[in-house]
Amino acid sequence: MTRMLKQSSQMLRAWLLAAALVFAADAGANQAREWRFTVFLDNKKIGYHHFSLKQLGRRQRLDSEARFKVKFLLFDAYRYEHNNVEWWRGNCLAGIQSRTDDNGETFSVQGGIARDRFTVETGLENKTLPPCVVSFAYWNPALLARPRLLNAQTGEYVEVTVTPLGPDTVTVRGEPVPAYRYRLSGEDLAIDLWYSPDNHWLALESTLEGGRKLRYRMQ
Question: Does residue 133 contact residue 155 with C-beta atoms inside 8 Å?
Fold first, then answer.
């Protein structure tokens, strides 16, 4: 049993290394990539989340925008607006600037490299993190190798556990496609991610309080 677990761990590390290499090569070959998702709460459409990645010299710039609105009868029961800009050098975050309105509660996060450390300011606190920080960058499968991820909304540095769930099938634009599924878990966190065999992010599903499902489906 110990030998089998060791072999599985080695295979996962090899896959993650290959994924990081494919991502780096793909980002260099294409000047811009996009991920555009329609967002559902259970089976009801509530908005969108779009991502755009551009290669700028030796760095990449990621712009993301999310807009959710949940209605109850004729009223807006919940509203969410999130804008985020991230700068990346390789698989390390070089800078971040985000603003979020979570149903009337506002958040602001700014961060960047300073003196070989990554500093984060939220308006409520300043913190210093290791030099190579990774956010919840679902588009980059290299995040699956990290024990902590930076929350772009709150500035929290969150401890996470990644569990490979093996081969699966996910619906993309109405068609079933083969994928690999992973579970990202932590305190108040339960997110499933699907990646294609060539390491492209395909879908997301998060279990919310009360058991409801937040689903990302590619447009």
Answer: no
Q: Which fold has domain 2-218?
A: outer membrane lipoprotein receptor (LolB), chain A (2.50.20)
Determine how many CB atoms are found less than 10 A away from the CB of residue 11.
11
pLDDT tens-digit profile of 103-151? 999 999 999 998 899 999 998 899 999 999 999 999 999 999 999 999 9
**Is the entire prediction scored with pTM above 0.70?**
yes
